[in-house]
Structures are given as structure tokens and as C-alpha cells.
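Review form for a predicted model. The reviewer records the input and the model, then writes brief findings.
Reviewer: anonymous (R2)
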Amino acid sequence: MSNKTWTAVDDYIVSSLFEADPVLDAVIATNRKQGLPAIDVSAAQGKLLSLLVRIRGAKRVLEIGTLGGYSTVWMARGLPADGKVVTLELDPHHAKVARSNFERAGVSDKVDLRIGPALQSLAALGSENAGPFDLIFIDADKPNNPNYLSWAMRLSQPGTVIICDNVIRDGAVLDEDGRDPNVEGARAAFSFIGGEKRLDGTAIQTVGAKGYDGFAIAIVE
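Model under review:
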């Protein structure tokens, strides 16, 4: 099968299961117009994140890697009225675009966007005793996956769901000798989750509009 088929199936999923959503369409259009890289989650993946927030009954969500806020909006929509997403973004331009998208989607009151290097923002959250979070979504620079997962453990509690995106890398995760930093980051995520006794996890391979990849998902015991 080809990316063309995978994308067509994604389109079928969206047209069959989702109501038309001009707000989310506008978020994606704004991200492209503002020059953000086209690395947002797909609509089907965004809906999965929203459902996982609801399934977990999450009130506090941490997102590492905002980009233009597309995934943030999906998760914010899954929260109850008193829920909050704390989302971390390095790039001020990306953050500015994301803020406008949050306003457009009517979720600004549910989002705490923090700008700066994620590890610094995570340290600040730790010093503020901002945790624990109910669900943590990691979708930032891949070489730092083990550092982000380490912080996720510190900011979690039993029952916290941790999701780490882009861990299959077109199957390159199998390459033990590769020197691609993103692949090394993916392998490091597997090593961390597999070696952490407090985590019970798995990984799912995915195909779709975003190509061949996958995510790891774990629960804190």
C-alpha cells in the first residue's frame, strides 16, 4: 500500500465518523499560512487524543511540544469545564500562532501555554509543584525523549497516561546502528518505558495521512 491509500483511508475515517469542523480546519490552514512545519497530528490522531483524555477522565493534561496548537485544541475539547492543558513550546512564533488558534477554538481558558526550552519549563513546573498530571503527551524534539519521560514520571501519579509520539520512524526504529538523532530518540523512548518498573506500556504502529509511524503509550502503576 502507498501513502496515497493511507491518506484516502484517513479521509474516509474523518468523513464517516466526524462532523465537519471549520474551526479545526482553520487551525491547520493558519499553521500552514504562518509557515509552521506540517507535522501536526492528523485529524484521526487528534480525535484519539481527545478520546483518551475523556477515557482517562483527565482534568490536568501536560503537552510537551505545542507547535500551532492543533493537538492542544483536540485535548482541551476532551476536558471538563474545569480542566486545563499546560502546553510547552520553544518557538515564540509558533506560540503566537497557537494562542490565536486557541482563541479561535474558544479554549484559551483551558490552556496554559509556556514559552521556552521544554526542560526549563518542566523544571519550573516541578518547582511549582504543578503536578500531578492525568495525561502527558510528548511530541517535541525526539533526542530529548528520555529526559521528557523522566520529567513525565516526576509529574505523574498512579494512573497517569503517558503518550510518546513518532516512535516508529518509517520502521527505522529497528536500526540499532543508525545515527539519526530522531531514531535514537525513538529507541531511547522504548528503552525508558521498557526499563521503568512503574510503567506498563505498549506501542502501536500507525499509517495514514502522516505516513508510517506510531506512538508508545504507557500507564503509571
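Findings: The mean pLDDT is 97.
Further findings: The chain has one domain: 3-220.
Recommendation: see findings above.
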